[in-house]
Amino acid sequence: xxxxxxxxxxxxxxxxxxxxxxxxxxxxxxxxxxxxxxxxxxxxxxxxxxxxxxxxxxxxxxxxxxxxxxxxxxxxxxxxxxxxxxxxxxxxxxxxxxxxxxxxxxxxxxxxxxxxxxxxxxxxxxxxxxxxxxxxxxxxxxxxxxxxxxxxxxxxxxxxxxxxxxxxxxxxxxxxxxxxxxxxxxxxxxxxxxxxxxxxxxxxxxxxxxxxxxxxxxxxxxxxxxxxxxxxxxxxxxxxxxxxxxxxxxxxxxxxxxxxxxxxxxxxxxxxxxxxxxxxxxxxxxxxxxxxxxxxxxxxxx
Length: 302
Known about the structure:
Layout: H1 3-7, H2 10-22, H3 24-39, H4 50-59, E1 64-65, H5 83-97, E2 107-110, E3 121-123, H6 134-142, H7 151-158, H8 177-184, E4 198-199, E5 213-216, H9 223-226, E6 227-232, E7 240-244, H10 248-252, H11 254-265, E8 272-275, E9 280-284, H12 290-300
Parallel strand pairs: 1-4, 2-5
Antiparallel strand pairs: 2-3, 6-7, 7-9, 8-9
C-alpha cells in the first residue's frame, strides 16, 4: 500500500470510488464496441465470457482512440498502454465485479487503514474480491514480469467458472508484450506501420446518480481461517502444500508475513519451507502427518 493511500482519509477514497463507478458507462462503451467488432455479438460480462474478455483486452492494449483515461490511471502504476487499453482494463474490472451472472453490483470500500486493500472498492459483500487492485497486475503483465496465466488465479478468486475444453485456460504463450509492441513499430523506413486499430466511439455521459458505496470494516480473521488447508505437494522435493488465505498479509502486517516462512521452518519435524508467490507454501516434513503440519503452520502464525 502506498503511503499516500494509507494516510488518506476514508472520505477521499469514497470520492475516488464514486468517480470510478460513475465512469463505468464509458469503459463499457469501449468494451462493447471492441467486442462487437471482434466477435460480431453483443458483449455480456458473465462467467463464461471472462477469458474471452481477457484475451480481447490484451489484444487491444495499444489501440488508438480519443477517450479519456480512467481516474485510477494517473501514471503511478507506470501502466504503459493507450487510453483505449486502459479503458478496456477498466471494463474488465467491472466484468469481474459482475461475476458470475453479469447482474447489478452493490459496492463497498475497505475502511480499515491497517489493511492492505484500504480504500479499494469491492462488490459487496465479497470483501476478498478487491477488483480495484487489478490494474497493477496488468502493469506487471505489460512489463513482462508476469505471464498471462497469472490471471487464472484472479479468475479463480473472483468466481469465474473453471476452464474446460470449450473455454481453455489462459496461457503465457498467448501474449508477449515485446512481440505485440514490435508489431506496432514502423517498418521499412517508416513506410509501413503496424496494425493498431483506431476507434471512433461515441461515449455516454458518466452516471449522474452513483449507487451508494458503503464503508466496511470486517472483524479480524482467526489463525484457523488464515491458515486453512494442507494437502499433498506437487513438487517432488516437498511433502506437503500449505495454503494461506490471500488476506494473511493484510491481517498480520508485511513484517510478520515476510517472516512466516522462517518461523514455520523452525517448527519441530519441518525440515524445509518454500513460500511461492504469496499463498502457496511448500513444506518438507516426511515424519509428520498433514494434520500435524497444519497444527505447526498455525503455531507459526501465532
